User: Which sequence fits this backbone?
């Protein structure tokens, strides 16, 4: 399957990736990404950490550019409680725009929230969720002065470029993977393997075949994992596993 | 420890490789919907031939929990032969490098930090011994992002693209240099030896793999380089055979 879109954008995209992989500083990477974002019609771009695993929503600019007045107002007025882009960022594997988040929203507070944002700094935004190894959620946020209408292929390409920008940027900002939480090391290998396959949607019988052990043993390992991680249900176990980095590098495969 | 499995010692890892292929089926065919060949409950492709090398992480029960495949790309390459349009500037030019390898099918169940580090460092170290200079891949975006975040300084061969099964992937190249090894080791703080290759001609080669690995681990604590590691491990295992005890 190929992309039938603009040759110029494809060329710029490849140029960005070629230069980005050679960047040795965040400043250089940001400059390259901003040049790319402008080619796609955007005016600002940055990576914003929304929350650490298990933490409250506290937007923080990690790198790139972001409207700081808005970031501060967002925190002061606790807009995290009504911002519909947050649950979308949690649920969606795909990038989305304000237009989609707003949808047919009737709540006056939400409509005022978007009205305020549009008045302050942009007409629309392209938002790409980026999950960290331990459940931290960030977004690459691209701001536009025009409402966004993009072909699916262009959207997919841009989402991919944003994900790679975030990964390269984070490796420059904080080289190497951060250490896992202490709790992560409490599980045995077998317990971690059983949790992993449970998160992949397998039931005990299937996990038993994959691991070459009995279904009863699988159940024992999962029970032990639940006890060690202080959770009671399987969904809780999977969510906890995400925050402990047990599902890396397939983290993006799970909701 | 990371086990190096080649055509020469593959017969000693039959159970582990069967498990690996079954995991590949579960993850890539059933999990991601990839249109790949399935045989006896496992996923196999043209790259699983005599020239393939597997790096395996094996637990104390002998189960293979982590793996990656590497193979010379001079005669067959998924990226060059099956996905040439994914490479900007033409795929065939990559074959001008006679020391080109390709990696594929990276699996890590329940990310064990130590094994993840060993795969990321060990792949480069091993390929250096095989005189590779570059290792290409076409990886799903999330795997590529993880590899970048973890410290691999990948170069891009093309732009991200949607493949027929619906996922998004990108073709990349990993430089195989001593500098990359040092970079990976510095990021992780790992200075130990962890690559091991079972000599199929050794008298102890058919001992249980966890036993063999145990001897290599003990040897690794003393050895200064991989040649010394192999010698020390061999001594320990021969001694255990003649003493009638497991190492």
Assistant:
């Amino acid at each position: 399957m190929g992309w039938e879109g603009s040759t110029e954008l494809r060329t710029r995209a490849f140029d960005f990736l070629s230069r980005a992989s050679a960047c040795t500083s965040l400043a250089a990477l940001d400059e390259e990404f901003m040049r790319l974002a402008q080619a796609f019609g955007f005016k600002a771009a940055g990576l914003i950490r929304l929350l650490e695993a298990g933490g409250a929503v506290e937007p923080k600019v990690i790198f790139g550019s972001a409207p700081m007045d808005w970031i501060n107002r967002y925190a002061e007025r606790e807009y995290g409680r009504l911002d519909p882009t947050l649950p979308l960022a949690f649920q969606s594997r795909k990038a989305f725009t304000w237009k989609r988040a707003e949808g047919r929203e009737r709540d006056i507070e939400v409509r005022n929230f978007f009205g305020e944002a549009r008045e302050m700094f942009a007409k629309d935004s392209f938002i790409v969720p980026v999950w960290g190894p331990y459940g931290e959620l960030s977004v690459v946020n691209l701001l536009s002065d025009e409402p966004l209408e993009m072909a699916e292929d262009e959207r997919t390409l841009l989402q991919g470029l944003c994900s790679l920008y975030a990964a390269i940027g984070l490796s420059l900002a904080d080289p190497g993977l951060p250490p896992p939480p202490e709790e992560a090391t409490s599980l045995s290998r077998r317990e971690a393997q059983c949790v992993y396959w449970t998160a992949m949607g397998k039931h005990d019988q299937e996990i038993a075949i994959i691991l070459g052990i009995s279904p009863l043993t699988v159940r024992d390992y999962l029970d032990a994992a639940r006890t060690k991680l202080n959770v009671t249900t399987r969904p809780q176990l999977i969510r906890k596993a995400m925050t402990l980095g047990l599902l890396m590098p397939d983290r993006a495969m799970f909701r | 420890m990371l086990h190096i499995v080649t055509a020469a010692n593959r017969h000693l890892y039959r159970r582990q490789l069967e498990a690996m292929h079954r995991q590949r089926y579960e993850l890539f065919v059933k999990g991601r919907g990839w249109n790949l060949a399935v045989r006896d409950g496992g996923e196999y492709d043209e790259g699983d031939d005599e020239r393939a090398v597997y790096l395996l992480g094996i637990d104390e029960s002998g189960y293979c929990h982590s793996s990656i495949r590497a193979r010379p790309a001079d005669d067959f390459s998924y990226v060059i032969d099956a996905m040439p349009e994914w490479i900007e500037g033409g795929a065939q030019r990559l074959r001008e490098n006679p020391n080109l390898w390709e990696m594929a099918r990276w699996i890590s169940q329940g990310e064990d930090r130590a094994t993840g580090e060993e795969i990321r460092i060990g792949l480069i170290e091993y390929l250096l011994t095989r005189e590779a200079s570059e290792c290409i891949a076409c990886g799903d975006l999330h795997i590529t992002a993880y590899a970048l975040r973890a410290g691999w300084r990948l170069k891009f061969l093309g732009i991200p693209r949607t493949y027929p099964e619906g996922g998004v992937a990108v073709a990349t190249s990993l430089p195989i240099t001593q500098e990359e090894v040092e970079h990976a080791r510095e990021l992780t703080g790992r200075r130990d030896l962890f690559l091991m290759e079972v000599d199929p001609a050794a008298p102890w080669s058919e001992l249980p793999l966890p036993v063999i690995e145990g001897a290599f681990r003990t040897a690794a604590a003393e050895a200064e380089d991989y040649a010394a590691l192999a010698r020390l491990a061999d001594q320990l295992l021969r001694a255990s055979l003649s003493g009638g005890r497991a190492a």
Summary: Chain A has a mean pLDDT of 88. Chain A is about 50% helix and 10% strand. The domain at 7-173 of chain A is CATH 3.30.450.80 (Beta-Lactamase). The longest helix of chain A spans residues 152-173.
